[in-house]
User: Which sequence fits this backbone?
């Protein structure tokens, strides 16, 4: 059960509103053993990287146009087999159907990169409309998989339930696209995200959705490609709300995401560091529950973030961590050079607009965070380095304010208010690097701040 305060009502303190997801009516106890299975990608290396199966299932449509299945129960219980396959330029619709999938995937790479064993596999420039349907999987399988350039799946008014490892709700890979509206997903298993992309990229457009995952590694959005979420309520019991691996893009509008493990969002590169990762939240809320969880975490990546009219609620008091680190394939801890010898620091820019934020910025081991407050934003917090030297820059426009909660040492400090009266120092000091180009305007001067602190060069 996902119990949340609806967006916009929080300040009215009306209490919590209960939102129903498929875990409310599924027999969770019957799936306990299934959900305890771990995806063992990192020990057996996932198996062959190229497709070794003929993707097939009892409802198989190849080069088939104009078919619609309605008001039927479609099922299979077999390993490495789908229930419905729609492929080779087909156009097939499913309406008011119940799909039940049982049976395991032998190789994780086959399931991940090609959708072997997915309940519904739409591939190779095919189109499917799936509406008013229930899709249930056990033993680890994607509910709906889209594969290949030109493949598009339109999903509406659908409930997705899954148990077992790697049972993502909506899963797009090989350039496939899924458009979903009014859906609910629950997964109990390991590495079973609600909305996921995979190599070389999948495109997910999700609106009006409720997503709840219980397992480790199971995010609301796992971005590999592009994820667009609008009006999504997401709860991840043992995962971040968002994983993003590489130079991917995640764009969220009016989402309310709550995360239970690692951080609110985790942007990383599992191989060499890439630049161009993007993340934005508009009119949204992000909540992290763990006492060590940052809202936004970055490792081995160069990323740009935008937060517009967004609330962040952390238990840890940490807004941003940038680290020379990545998440491992076990998805429950951060690791560095011991697992990836090419690991590099994170470089992050965050633009905050129309938002009031509280919490700290922490740059680990050579990482940098450039933090811009603009358009009537406010920030209460400080910034510091951990595990060696980090690089911190703060940029305030004249409409934004900063309330210090500790002394802070910045590499760059830029303020659109030339009198610095938008800083409430509380007696704390800001020191700035006198050699940095960004600080030339300060001309090495020391400035008194309201509240008794000072701005001074080092
Ligand atoms: C795939 O189908 C082809 C043609 O029907 C067949 O020759 C081949 O043996 C099948 N491969 C597998 C792995 O089943
Ligand atoms: C499938 O659904 C689409 C969208 O509603 C519709 O345009 C198309 O005609 C449908 N095809 C069939 C065979 O029902
Ligand atoms: C299906 O996969 C499971 C799990 O790997 C295995 O135990 C079982 O023997 C397989 N079934 C068949 C018919 O191969
Ligand atoms: C998609 O096309 C590839 C390349 O031709 C082929 O290997 C694969 O079997 C096809 N997938 C499906 C589901 O038909
Ligand atoms: C995905 O797109 C890339 C770039 O256009 C292309 O090279 C590749 O063949 C596509 N993959 C599939 C499975 O369609
Ligand atoms: C799916 O099944 C559940 C349980 O029977 C039901 O409550 C729900 O309305 C169904 N969803 C759809 C879209 O038919
Ligand atoms: C922050 O989140 C916690 C945990 O969900 C919740 O109890 C608390 O009310 C939230 N605080 C605000 C100000 O929304
Ligand atoms: C920072 O990175 C190191 C090395 O990967 C890792 O051991 C540590 O857990 C990370 N800490 C955080 C808070 O990211
Ligand atoms: C700091 O990061 C470098 C790579 O950027 C890495 O080699 C080193 O092990 C890291 N140190 C710690 C303590 O994590
Ligand atoms: C500091 O400013 C320089 C340009 O003057 C820029 O290259 C660097 O990324 C900035 N660093 C931070 C942490 O703001
Ligand atoms: C700020 O700097 C002044 C001048 O060096 C010093 O007296 C004061 O103790 C500093 N404040 C804090 C909180 O460290």
Assistant:
């Amino acid at each position: 059960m996902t119990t949340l305060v609806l967006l916009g009502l929080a300040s009215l303190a009306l209490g919590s509103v209960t939102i129903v997801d498929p875990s409310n009516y599924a027999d969770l106890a019957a799936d306990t053993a299934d959900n305890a299975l771990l995806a063992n990608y990192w020990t057996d290396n996932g198996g062959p990287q190229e497709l070794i199966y003929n993707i097939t299932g009892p409802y198989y449509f190849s080069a088939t146009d104009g078919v619609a299945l309605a008001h039927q129960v479609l099922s299979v219980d077999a390993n490495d087999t789908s229930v419905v396959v729609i492929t080779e330029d087909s156009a097939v619709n499913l309406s008011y159907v119940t799909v039940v999938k049982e049976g395991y995937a032998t190789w994780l790479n086959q399931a991940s990169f090609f959708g072997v064993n997915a309940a519904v596999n739409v591939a190779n420039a095919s189109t499917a409309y799936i509406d008013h349907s229930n899709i249930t999987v056990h033993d680890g399988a994607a509910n709906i998989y889209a594969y290949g350039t030109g493949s598009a799946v339109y999903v509406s008014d659908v409930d997705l339930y899954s148990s077992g490892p790697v049972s993502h709700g909506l899963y797009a890979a090989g350039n496939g696209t899924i458009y979903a509206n009014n859906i609910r997903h629950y997964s109990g298993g390991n590495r079973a995200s609600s909305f996921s992309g995979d190599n070389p990229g999948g495109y997910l457009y999700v609106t009006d959705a409720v997503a709840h995952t219980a397992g480790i590694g199971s995010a609301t959005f796992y971005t590999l490609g592009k994820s667009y979420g609008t009006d999504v309520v997401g709860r991840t019991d043992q995962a971040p709300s968002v994983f993003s691996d590489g130079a991917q893009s995640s764009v969220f509008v009016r989402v309310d995401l709550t995360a239970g493990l690692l951080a609110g969002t985790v942007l990383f590169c599992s191989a060499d560091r890439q630049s161009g990762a993007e993340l934005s939240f508009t009119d949204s809320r992000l909540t992290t529950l763990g006492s060590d969880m940052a809202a936004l975490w970055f490792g081995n990546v160069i990323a740009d973030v935008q937060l517009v009219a967004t609330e962040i609620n952390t238990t840890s008091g940490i807004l941003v961590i940038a680290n020379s680190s990545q998440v491992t394939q076990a998805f429950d801890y951060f690791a560095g050079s011991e697992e990836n010898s090419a690991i590099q620091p994170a470089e992050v820019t965050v633009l905050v607009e129309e938002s009031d934020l509280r919490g700290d910025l922490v740059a680990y081991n050579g990482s940098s965070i450039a933090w811009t407050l603009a358009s009537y934003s406010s920030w209460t917090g400080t910034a510091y380095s951990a595990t060696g030297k980090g690089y911190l820059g703060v940029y305030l426009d004249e409409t934004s304010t900063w309330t210090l909660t500790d002394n802070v040492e910045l590499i760059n400090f830029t303020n659109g208010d030339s009198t610095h009266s938008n800083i409430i120092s509380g007696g704390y000091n800001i020191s700035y690097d006198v050699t940095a180009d960004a600080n030339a305007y300060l001309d090495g001067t020391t400035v008194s701040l309201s509240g008794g602190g000072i701005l001074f060069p080092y």
The radius of gyration is 23 Å. Helices lie at 32-36, 41-44, 108-114.
